[in-house]
Amino acid sequence: MKVRIRPDIAVISLIVVLASVGAGCMVSTDTNHTANITSELTTAPPETCSVPEEFCGSSSVCPGKSVNDTYVFTNKSVYHIGEEVEFGIINCGDERVMFSHSSPWWIEKWVPNASAFLPDTGTDGTWEIVGDAGYVQPVVCYLDPGENWTEQWDTGGKARNYSAVSYVRLVSNLTPGTYRIRYGPDAPYIPYVREFEFV
Fold first, then answer.
1. What does the pLDDT look like over 80-114, one tens digit per residue?
2. Pairing mode, strands 78-79 and 192-198
3. Which of 10, 64, 84, 156 is a Cys-bridge partner for 194, taking CB atoms 3.0 to 4.6 Å apart?
4. Distance of CA 126 to CAs 39, 104, 112, 146, 194, Å?
5. How would CATH label the architecture of 62-198?
6. Helix/strand/coil for 77
7. pTM
8. Kindly report the CA angle at 46 between 43 and 48, in degrees rounded to 5?
9. Is the dihedral of CA 109, 181, 123, 78 positive or negative?
10. Any idea what DSSP says for residue 196?
11. What is the DSSP track for 97-129?
12. H or E element: which one contains 62?
């Protein structure tokens, strides 16, 4: 005798089977896999800095490329706008470096697909000044071997304790992108720089 299944029962049975298979795809039975997904979503990887062996400063900062054993550094590589940025310059060499004033730094942003008549203009963009220390009395300053100058910049623009946080005069709004701190020495006229990101 042939067993006959009613069409409406067959359709309902098929829906139940498909629903249970679909539900199985949405929930993993692998607890390690689920834990890994959760930890990836909730924690960011720790920031690492590439500190050269000959760098004479703290291992907790991120130095730029050396020019005559002098480095510009930041305390991180990536910042959110509103965070405090600590930056500075350190002389790891044997000769002192001369500057024409006491705050010889600029904050610059990389502007892609732009051109300007600047010595460091690339074919795909240019560095544009977005901030500086404001007017500074011209006076010769020296960064001696082993000495560093450190600045703290409050990018949130909150009230400043002038003994602790440096004044930065912004000439343009901060937006996400690639930035750099540039120190301009009097000689050898090669700027000292350190790049970082705002996200």
1. 999 999 999 999 999 999 998 888 999 999 998 77
2. parallel
3. 64
4. 39, 20, 7, 32, 16
5. Sandwich (2.60)
6. coil
7. 0.69
8. 160
9. negative
10. E
11. EEEEES--EEEEEEEET---S-TT-BTTEEEEE
12. strand 62-63
